[in-house]
From TrEMBL:
Protein name: Pyrroline-5-carboxylate reductase
Alphabetical keyword list: Amino-acid biosynthesis, NADP, Oxidoreductase, Proline biosynthesis
Region annotation Disordered: where it falls in the sequence: 329-351
GO BP terms: L-proline biosynthetic process
Pathway linked to the protein: Amino-acid biosynthesis; L-proline biosynthesis; L-proline from L-glutamate 5-semialdehyde: step 1/1
Chain ranges of the Pyrroline-5-carboxylate reductase catalytic N-terminal domain: 64-160
Domain Pyrroline-5-carboxylate reductase dimerisation as annotated: residue spans: 223-327
Family indicated by similarity: Belongs to the pyrroline-5-carboxylate reductase family.
One term of GO molecular function: pyrroline-5-carboxylate reductase activity
Enzyme class per UniProt: oxidoreductase
Reactions this protein catalyses: L-proline + NADP(+) = (S)-1-pyrroline-5-carboxylate + NADPH + 2 H(+)
InterPro entries: 6-PGluconate_DH-like_C_sf, NAD(P)-bd_dom_sf, P5C_Rdtase_cat_N, P5CR-like_CS, P5CR_dimer, Pyrroline-COOH_reductase
Length: 351
């Protein structure tokens, strides 16, 4: 039976896409959009009484998937697998310390709730580690080492923990490190990922397929971009939400009712983002086009620059990057005024 939650996801997806179809969208983007909406409508109209076939599994190497940790990100991952029909839900086993959480995931998606880490790992050719970094304790590493099949691929979404830690602590050489973000919960995420040389080409393709079910994905050869991506896209939704909140509060300060302020701000940010994405133009060109000499926008931009808007954003990225390095017990003395100003160059020279 298709859980009701999935019909909701398909409807939400179709709604989001319909809202974002620009009148001048190019043919390729348009046909992708139409295909997406058709898939969503098919999911809505299908017969609940019959089991769903696994439609997109061709070229997907993983036959059984184990998840360690069943929190927010795991829920997004399960949604991606199930909505994109990459694998049947009953072939996904989840282990979480919270029985309540397991019951919820089982009821919502039809996945298997494992009573132990060993049960989640058993026969799984892809094991996803989705606990908080502080929960990766010695006890958990030991359990992973004892229960992981050396042939399985271990995929981590844990912020800051390098692939070498997984190789050394679990003995498993096929490691994928990813940095997703929370818009993955509506399949609008951005995931950056890297993997060890032991992950085969077809396994990489399957990982790319899986990550595409969460939104956009981007592979990097050099793992240090994962710590940078943590600062940009991983933590990014937090900064964007703070900016949205500040813009709404500023509009309320001017005198708008809060619901009107929210509508104006959300549509302005969403519309401008879509404009930048669809036009392919650099934001500076688009910004110049709305900045009349001596006008209102020029006035506001002057105040933002006076408040060091760009530098504050850059400093916040460096701070998150340093924190990600700290979580992985790496040298975090990077950034302007630090001993490693150009982190990338320094690390490349080290090799
Ligand atoms: N949320 C984000 O924006 C985001 C973005 C990118 C990456 N990440 C990464 O994704 C990972 C998961 O984040 P999340 O937001 O999904 O966290 P979360 O909602 O707290 O989920 C983690 C789950 O793992 C459970 N858990 C703790 N120890 C465990 C153990 N030994 N075995 C099995 N389950 C255990 C937790 O239970 P309790 O709550 O009872 O401890 C919780 O249900 C983190 O490493 C984070 O760095 C998160």
């Amino acid at each position: 039976m298709l859980p009701t939650r999935l019909a909701g996801i398909a409807a939400r997806r179709a709604f989001l896409m319909q809202r974002h179809i620009p009148s001048n969208a190019n043919t390729t983007a348009m046909s992708a959009t139409v295909r997406w909406i058709h898939r969503s409508q098919a999911a809505l109209s299908h017969d609940d009484s019959k089991p769903d076939p696994v439609a997109n599994a061709e070229g997907f190497d993983f036959n059984r998937i184990g998840l360690v940790g069943g929190g927010k990100m795991s829920e997004a991952i399960i949604e991606g697998f199930v909505t994109e029909k990459l694998i049947q839900p009953e072939k996904i086993s989840v282990y979480d310390v919270s029985r309540k959480r397991l019951d919820y995931l089982m009821k919502t998606f039809g996945v298997q709730a494992s009573s132990s880490l060993a049960a989640a790992c058993k026969d799984s050719d892809l094991v996803i580690i989705a606990v908080k970094p502080q929960n990766l304790t010695q006890k958990l590493w030991t359990q992973l080492r004892a229960n992981l099949d050396p042939k399985s691929v271990v995929l981590s979404i844990v912020a800051g923990i390098p692939m070498s830690n997984f190789v050394e602590s679990t003995g498993n050489k096929r490691v994928v490190r990813t940095m997703p973000n929370t818009p993955a919960t509506i399949q609008q995420g951005m995931t950056v990922w890297a993997c060890t040389d032991h992950v085969s080409v077809s396994q990489r393709n399957s990982v790319a397929k899986f990550l595409s079910s969460l939104g956009e994905q981007h592979f990097v050869h050099d793992e240090q971009y994962l710590d940078m991506a943590t600062a940009v896209s991983g933590s990014g939704p937090g900064y964007v939400l703070l900016i949205l909140e500040a813009l709404i509060d500023a509009a309320v300060h001017l005198g708008f009712a809060r619901n009107v302020a929210s509508k104006l701000v959300l549509q302005t940010v969403s519309g401008t983002t879509t404009l930048a994405m669809k036009s392919g133009l650099h934001p500076a060109i688009l910004r110049n086009s709305v900045t009349s000499p001596g006008g209102t926008t020029a006035s506001a931009l002057y105040v933002l620059e006076q408040g060091r808007f760009r530098t504050v954003l850059a400093d916040s990225f460096w701070s998150a990057y340093r924190r990600s390095l700290e979580l992985g017990h790496m040298d975090s003395n990077v950034g302007p005024g630090r001993s490693r100003h150009d982190a990338h160059e320094t690390d490349s020279h080290k090799k």
